[in-house]
Amino acid sequence: xxxxxxxxxxxxxxxxxxxxxxxxxxxxxxxxxxxxxxxxxxxxxxxxxxxxxxxxxxxxxxxxxxxxxxxxxxxxxxxxxxxxxxxxxxxxxxxxxxxxxxxxxxxxxxxxxxxxxxxxxxxxxxxxxxxxxxxxxxxxxxxxxxxxxxxxxxxxxxxxxxxxxxxxxxxxxxxxxxxxxxxxxxxxxxxxxxxxxxxxxxxxxxxxxxxxxxxxxxxxxxxxxxxxxxxxxxxxx
Length: 237
Fold this sequence. Notes:
The protein is mostly beta strands. Helix content is 8%, strand content 35%.
């Protein structure tokens, strides 16, 4: 989903406009009363004294919260707020190449302000799950297969998993050293907001066994003799 995009369902609890009063907060059929403090203006003038004299400022009316009117008969369903709890579900479009921590904004899908204004927005923060097969570096993917000593010396072929779910056969040439990286272009992640994809880097690790059988030890010692390599001899008993 992160590589190629898709859709995700998001369920959440929110406040929605009250269906009984249509968000007015008042019982249907009743009328709101003019606020006596601001006389319907929604604002009040406040005098503040200082060393330089008296300054006048305008503030929202606290009694009516700037609406200019009061609810004389609150709605029984929302208790005058104009909004009620609601379980919502929305389908979110996930863009290709998205990374963990990206926040997607859905305008108007947040909580309803009821009688105080339009609903807010919903922010969906994305977390991309880890994949044991890959390490992600921006749009590039790194895969670390392990091969044996003989495979590294003589060469081999590996089936490399791809993010699409397929596999790609990679030829590992003879004499491949530990940590050698093979680049498969265009088989990484999509680039967010742009066309194209990153690369797949196959970093080969050579598995050195920490224990060998007696037959394997004999073969390795013969190998060492042929290569004129110095190895420890077993202690005499």
